[in-house]
Each structure stands twice: as C-alpha cells, then as structure tokens.
C-alpha cells in the first residue's frame, strides 16, 4: 500500500474557515475545520482503515502526531492544537504519552531503494578529493556505497560460527558460494572468491573463538574474512571492477591498550610503527596448521594479485576497497599499507567502522603519500576509535602541535564521518559503551544521517530491527526483542526419532583452506 | 539401525584361550583374545562403520567403555583391562578421560516405546492401594502413566506465551485444538476440551505474567491450564474414560512462606486450613474481566461436570486425574478437594511434581477420608516441596509426634516418590536449587528411575536434551545448549519487504473465554 509523506498538509483557505486535510499512512484521512472565529478545531471526519496490528497502530499514531505538528506551527494558540492532537488520538483509542512523538520513518516499505549509476562519480565517492563536500551533508550516493561495504563487513559477523559447542566454532557457517545468499546480500552484485583465515603468535585478548570440543576443525585459526569481486552488472553501475576485502572484527577490549609503546612494532623504514597485536594477527603463520600455512596477509595478497591479473588481461579498470569494523578496520589499514606498497598505481580505499588507531604519525603519512584513501566512520559515543592513545593523546590535547614531534603517538589516518547516537529517535537515550560500538548501530545511524545539523531522515529505509540483532539499543516502543539474532532452538533440530540433536554441518560447508573461485566462476 | 544392548558379552571358553566378542552400537564389533598364559589381551579386530558425527563417536566410545567393564570384572589384573580399554579407545582416536565412563543410554533410538494395555490395572496405578509395592522398584506401567501426566503438565509451560513484548503474554500460544499437535503430544491419545484462566485478588509474588504493551488480551488473567479427555482408543487401553486437569505452575519463590500462619485460610469446617495465596488464584473472579467472570475453580468444575454427564449418559466408567507442577501441584490439591466434595464416588487421583505443601493436617486427613489418591513426585534436591513449613517443620522435626497437635502446621498429603538428581549420569553434579525444581528434570529422573538402590536405567528412552530446554543442568559432554527452548529469532520473521517483524498472532490462536469442545468433538 503506497503511503503519503509525513508532513503533507493542504490548507484550503475559505472566507470564513480554514480547512486542513491530512493524508496519513494506511489510508487514514483526517479533516479538521477551523472557523476563523473559534480558537479550536472541529474534527469532522476520520477514517482508520487498516491499522490491525499494534505496530501499524503505533505508526498511525505517530503519523497523526507528525501531521498535527504543522498545525501547531500554523496555530498561534498552542492550547487549540493540543486539543486537536488529543481528539485525534482519542479517535485512535491510543494512550497519549511523550513517547508517541517519534518519527518512525517508513517502517513498512521495502528496505531497498532503487540504485543510481555512479560510474562517472566513483573516484570521488572513493575519496579522490578526500570526500570534500560529500560528507556534510552526506551525499546519498556515498551513503549507499558506505552502507554496502558496511554490510559486507557485517556479513563476517552474521556468517561466523560463535557456538562453542560446535566443532566448527570459529569458522564460517556457510561456504563462500552460499554466504551472500544466506545473509540476503546477493542484491549487492558481488561474488565471494576466497575465504581468509588468521592466527596469532602473540596472545591478543579475546579475538580468537575456540570450540569447547575435543575434535575441532582447527585449533589455531579463525575465519577472518573474505575477498569478493563485483559482477558485470554491478561493475557496470559502479564504473569499474571492484575487488573487496572484508575483515572480521571483534569488540576491542581496552586492555589491549594499557601500554602503548610496548605494543608498537616497527615496519618498513625505521620511523613507521604499528600496533603489535594487530600486526601479529595479520602476519602470523605456521607450517603445522592447516589453515595458516600462509598468513592472512599472504592469503589476501595472493588472491588480490590473481584477480587483478585476470581482469587486467581483459583490459578492465580495477579498484581495491578494504572494509572492516573494529579490529577488522585495523587489519584493513595494514592490508591497505601492504597493497599500496606492493601494487603501485592500484586505486585503494579503506572504509572502516569504529576502528581503533593502528599506527603512528609516520604510518599515517606514508599511507597518505602512497595515495591510500581512508574514510573512517565513527560513532561519537563509541570509545574503541579512541584507542590506543586515548589517555596519551588526551594529555597532549592542548599541545596538539607538539604531538607531531612524538612519532610514537598513535594517529588516525584519513578523513572521518562522525555520527551521534542521539540523532536517532529509535535508539535508547542512555549511551551504552559496548552497544555504541556495534556495527549495526553504525549502519543504522549512517542510514538516517543527513548532515551535522539536520535530524535523522524520516524516510531512511534500512530495517531498524537489525539494530537489536546483538544489542539492546532500540527503544521499547518498537517492541523488537533484544539480542534476537540466534539460531532456532540454538541449532537443535528434531530428528526422525523424536530427539533434539545438533546436526553435523553439511559437508559442503565444512571449511576448506583451498577453495577459491575458478576463472570460470569469475567468468 | 537396531542396536544391541550395552553389556552383551559372549565368553567362548577354549582350551587355551578365552575369546570375548563385544557387539557395540553402530555395527561396531570388537573381539579380544586372552591367552590363558598372558595377563593382557590382544585386540585382533575392530570395525567402526558409521560413527560420523561427534555425538555418535562419543556414543561408540562410551559403548566401548561399557563393553570393557565386564572384562574388567572378569579380570583380576586391573592393569590388563586398562590396557585393553586404552587400545580400544586409541583405535577410536578419541581422548581418554574420566568423563568417558558414562552410560549414555539409547540416545539414538526412538523416544517412544510400545504401550501396554493397562485396563485391568488402572485402579492400582491410580493409587487404589496407595501405590504399595509399585514405587520401589517403580512399576514400568506406572512410570509410563506418571510421565504421561507429567508431559500434560509440561505442556502448560511449553505452550505458554512468556514474551512480555507480545500483546498475548500470559495466554497460550496455540488454541486448544492445536496445543498437543504443536507440542508433539498427540500420541498420548487425549483431546483438550477447555482452557482454564485464573486471576488473583491477593498479590501472589511472581505467578502472574504481564505484557509490557499498552493493549493486551487481558490485564487480569493468565492461562492457567486446561481440561482434556482420553479418546476412545486410549480409553480402551487404560480401561476407562479419563478426564484430566493440568494446572500450570511457576517456580515458587520462598518469600511466599515467611509467615505461615498469616497466610493460612479456613475452608470447609473450622479445622481445615489451606495456603491463602494458592486459594486466591484458585477462587478469584471479577465481573469486570473477560476471562475470569468465573473463577478457575468454577471453570474447571463446570467442564468436569459437563464431561461426566456426557460420558455417564453413555454408561462409561470415568476417572478424574489432576496434575500439576510446583504451584500447579498445589492448585491440583485444591481442585481435588473441591471435586471430591461436590462429586461423591468419582475416582480422583492427583499426580503432582515438586509441589509445595498446601494445607494443614486436617486438610490432608479430609482428602484421605474422601478417598482422594495423591502421588507426589519429589526431587531430593528441590527445596520447593519443603515449603511452606520448611523452617517450622524442621524445628519440630525431633518432636514429630507433637506436630500432629498443631493443626496449623502444613502437612503433605498422600504417598510420594523420591528422586535423586545424583542418580542421573547426564546431570551436572553441583546441585542447582532452581534447576532441580524444573519439571523436565523430574521427568528425566522418572524415566531413568528403577529403584532406590539401582542405578539409572541404561535403556531409558526419553530425550535427554529436553532437560536443557530451560535449564543448564546437562553435563558438557552431551553438548546440548543451555536454555535452548526459545522461538526462532525470538519470534521475529522476515516479511516480504525484507523487514524483521513480530507477526500478529493467528486470529484462531487469539484467546477466547468461551471455546469448549462441542459434543460432536467429544465424538
């Protein structure tokens, strides 16, 4: 059912009366007449056609509120419009509370909007001019692309087997052919070509998921992300063949960052330093493992070079976009540094979400120098991007010019887009440190962001319920359960004997270190 | 695949050697030869055919252990059999730990066994002789019947809508026609004829489930159970038409019982007293409610009388069996008291699980006098059956003969069957006060109970996984997730717009105070 926008109010000026016609959602029409003489309005018609479910009722209620606002503005007498609002709501037989005054947006429309062809603009969208004039207000084309890459990063969480009672804990629940299909991301027009696995020689707190079982698929490695490439249709739309690396992250615990200097490690020429723990995950390998005979770094670069060779041969223009959330955002920068060093001339952009700092000033400057374009999406209330260097950089805050001298101080690279949890009318007001770091919160805020000064856009279309997949951040009024994203019956199924059992994984979904897309798959 | 019992060991005496042939699960056969001379055994054949999944492997492992035990007994030299065990397990390539020595029972066979015709024995099974000589050892026919009624009580939990975000929180998720089908209980051969609702005028702690939403199906009432009746086939098997009332319970918080005397209430003649809170739930009603214009008591008795009238007219023999867990067990006794008072000559039996004490000595004596047969199933580690009167009765423990004088002291009615959590090899050793009260624990222990002195029966067939539906009581080795019984994605479904929404309940499942089985339904 098509619905009319929120604030559609028609004012029919008559000699002696003003007539308001409000078209609300769900075919609700409301007319009010204000006699020039009287100070209050008379409701003379109201139809509520299909507000069956509680949810729809709430929507209509909110629509009504929205609709009444212009009248409030038009009105000099607040009392009058207040009366109108009340009568209107009483007709809806709904309680009249503060929490009703929320712009719920297009909650019942499709979550996807039609896509634009951005083939002529893709370089700007990927930071050619460091996103000048694209971030505030946020260009809708850029928003869509950022969310696309964000959903690629989100897939590394949604596909991940977190179940310590599964022998495959720490791997991806689906093989690379099924991942996007299972997670409903096929519409983005990319194909996963290779899975990336990582291990770590240094003990990085709580990045590694381990099964409780004796026999497991791997004792050393975790699925750490994947390489994907745009198909012909999408390549057409975005103006080049886009290779994507999506890195899985974890909520970074602050303990990582208690001693900054101790955890800094030299790379390249002497001046450049990066966080030791991040680099260990990116670089560690061992002959005695099945999935990390090659390091994550080697696995990615091998695949990226293979794809470049393949598409170069067809004379195609190519870009490499690296994305990741939290720890994944840190790995993305290390990946970008290596790719830029080893493949000159390749357009490389990093789109990271809630990523901590990775290296020092020299690292940042080297990335700029090599033309790596980095866009960091940061939620104001999220503390992770403040690490490492939170304490340190704050001490030096006032003497910021000095910090440049200390090349051991962590620095953020590239441009950034700052989001504020309080922008969204759907999120609880009390800020939640862990929750505010959640990638779905980032995507939700991005979807509603117009500009620093403007409110959350009413026609944001991304499904709000996704926020509560693994958080408790949505306001009660939405009635979305908290932490709802879990397998039916925690993975148990009823077998033919009438027993609840954990089915062993489909052979096709058992992790394989070797599976990469053949050239036929690529075409 | 048919499997052979655990301990099947054949000893083939030869002149110079003893040959052991062990038939294990999953077509595993193992032969060991012990030369009269040597003190150790030689493994000479081992086939492992279909132990694909971890679970099956564990089973084979355990089967192997089981199989080795008799050898251990036969052997004088422990060392030797230990060696055998080890070789056996090494062949299975499985770790060798203490936790392997568990009798896992028939985990892969059907959960249901064929039923016997008990038509000639049903009066004894329902307490004609107060279950003398039927409880220890537990008669298999009785066990089956107790579990049947226990599963009827369990249905009041499994069908209950606990979701505070549902407008129907506190009702049954399914209408009475679908309840047994949805919960897989159709095989018991009963039909639900009426749903029972309750409210309470006194504030009984945490028995009442309330929705967080503004608009709900009822603000005062909860679904409190149902009346069911055996169909022709089942009536044939059990020798009479059985009317069942299954009462829903709650975990009884100890606060209920701080002041015993204050909460005692007179019923019938002056001497008889029962717990005030229980009685309030059983008897409360209000003109201004939709579901409790009649009290739970009136709803049940009306339906029971209707059914009796109907089947009496057909000259059938009738029994009334009342079951319930925890609070439900308490309500069952109040229900039995009323039924016995108002319908003389009706065979009434109560089968309760983990029920607290309900009334004083006079109440107990009156029930006996009226011929109400009560079988209380009690888990030793569960504290709820110790309330009310826990403190009090313990103080008076040593002067037990005196307590008879204090007619305000709570007394348990009828016979009881005591179960011990430590009997079951599947349950964690640390006793959990809340967990030990769970009805699924009761049913699990019943299923394995042979007698006070004998161990958990190896061929118990009820699905062990059910224990963890709403507890964390199963040992790790079973790899059953804890608290796994929850709706997929907490009740959210993906709609055609790509949004995760809570679907409104099927109209047919919206609670109705009036729905009862028509006479056609009864046949």
Brief characterization of the structure:
Chain A is an alpha/beta fold and 523 residues long. Chain A has helices at 54-74, 78-91, 122-125, 140-158, 179-182, 232-238, 276-283, 296-313, 327-342, 361-369, 390-395, 400-403, 439-448, 519-522, and strands at residues 9-13, 17-23, 29-35, 42-47, 190-198, 222-230, 241-247, 264-266, 273-275, 318-325, 348-353, 359-360, 373-379, 410-411, 415-419, 493-494, 500-501. In chain A, the strands form five sheets. Chain A has a seven-stranded mixed beta sheet, with helices on both faces. In chain A, strands 1-2-3-4 form a four-stranded antiparallel beta sheet, with helices on one face.
Report on the architecture of this protein.
Chain A is α/β, with parallel strands linked by helices. Helices cover 28% and strands 17% of the residues of chain A. Chain A contains 14 helices and 17 strands. In chain A, the strands form five sheets. In chain A, strands 5-6-7-10-11-13-15 form a seven-stranded mixed β-sheet, with helices on both faces. Chain A has a four-stranded antiparallel β-sheet with strand order 1-2-3-4, with helices on one face. In chain A, strand 10, helix 9 and strand 11 form a beta-alpha-beta unit. In chain A, helix 1 packs antiparallel against helix 2, helix 4 packs antiparallel against helix 13 and helix 7 crosses helix 9. The longest helix of chain A is centred in the first third of the chain and has 21 residues. The radius of gyration of chain A is 26 Å and the shape is globular. The two termini of chain A are 40 Å apart. The relative contact order of chain A is 0.11. The N terminus of chain A is likely disordered. Chains A and B meet through helix 1 and strand 17 of A and helix 1 and strand 17 of B. Chains A, B: Keywords: Chloroplast, Hydrolase, Lipid degradation, Lipid metabolism, Plastid, Transit peptide. Chains A, B: InterPro entries: AB_hydrolase_fold, Fungal_lipase-type.
């Amino acid at each position: 059912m098509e619905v009319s926008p929120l604030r559609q109010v028609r004012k029919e000026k008559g000699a002696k009366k003003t007539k308001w016609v409000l078209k609300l959602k769900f075919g609700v029409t409301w007319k009010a007449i204000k006699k020039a003489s009287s100070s209050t309005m008379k409701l003379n018609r109201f139809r509520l056609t299909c507000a069956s479910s509680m949810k729809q009722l709430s929507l209509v209620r909110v629509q009504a509120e929205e609709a009444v606002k212009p009248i409030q503005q038009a009105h000099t007498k607040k009392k009058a419009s207040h009366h109108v609002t009340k009568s209107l709501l009483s007709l809806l037989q709904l309680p009249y509370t503060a929490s009703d005054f929320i712009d719920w947006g297009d909650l019942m429309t499709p979550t996807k909007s039609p896509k634009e062809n951005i083939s002529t603009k893709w370089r700007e969208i990927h930071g050619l001019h460091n996103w000048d004039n694209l971030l505030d207000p946020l260009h809708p084309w850029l928003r869509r692309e950022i969310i696309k890459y964000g959903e690629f990063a989100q897939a590394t969480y949604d596909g991940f087997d977190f179940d310590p009672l599964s022998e495959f804990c720490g791997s991806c629940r689906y093989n690379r052919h099924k991942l996007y299909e299972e997670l409903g991301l096929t519409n983005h027009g990319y194909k996963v070509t290779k899975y990336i696995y990582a291990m770590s020689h240094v003990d990085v707190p709580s990045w590694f998921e381990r099964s409780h079982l004796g026999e497991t698929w791997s004792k050393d490695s975790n699925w750490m992300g994947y390489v994907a490439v745009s198909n012909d249709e999408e390549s057409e739309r975005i103006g080049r063949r886009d290779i994507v690396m999506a890195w899985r992250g974890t909520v970074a615990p602050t303990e990582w960052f208690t001693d900054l200097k101790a955890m800094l490690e030299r790379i390249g020429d002497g001046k450049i330093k990066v966080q030791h723990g991040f680099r260990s995950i990116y670089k560690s390998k061992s002959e005695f493992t099945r999935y990390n005979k090659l390091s994550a770094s080697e696995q990615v670069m091998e695949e990226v070079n293979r794809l470049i060779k393949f598409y170069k041969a067809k004379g195609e223009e190519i870009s490499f976009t690296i994305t990741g959330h939290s720890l994944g955002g840190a790995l993305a920068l290390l990946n970008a540094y290596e790719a830029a060093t080893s493949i000159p001339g390749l357009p490389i952009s990093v789109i990271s979400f809630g990523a901590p700092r990775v290296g020092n000033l020299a690292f940042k400057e080297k990335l700029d120098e090599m033309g790596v374009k980095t866009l960091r999406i940061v939620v104001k209330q999220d503390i992770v991007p403040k690490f490492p260097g939170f304490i340190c950089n704050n001490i030096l805050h006032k003497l910021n010019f000095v910090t440049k001298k200390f090349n051991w101080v962590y620095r953020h690279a590239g441009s950034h887009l700052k989001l504020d949890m309080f922008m969204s009318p759907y999120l609880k007001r009390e800020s939640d440190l862990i929750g505010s770091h959640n990638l779905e919160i980032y995507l939700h805020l991005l979807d509603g962001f117009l500009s620093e000064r403007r409110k959350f856009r009413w026609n944001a279309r991304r499904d709000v319920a996704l926020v509560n997949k693994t958080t408790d951040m949505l306001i009660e009024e939405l009635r979305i359960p908290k932490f709802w994203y879990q397998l039916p019956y925690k993975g148990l199924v009823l077998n033919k004997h009438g027993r609840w059992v954990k089915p062993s994984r489909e052979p096709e979904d058992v992790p394989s270190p070797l599976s990469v897309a053949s050239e036929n798959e690529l075409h």
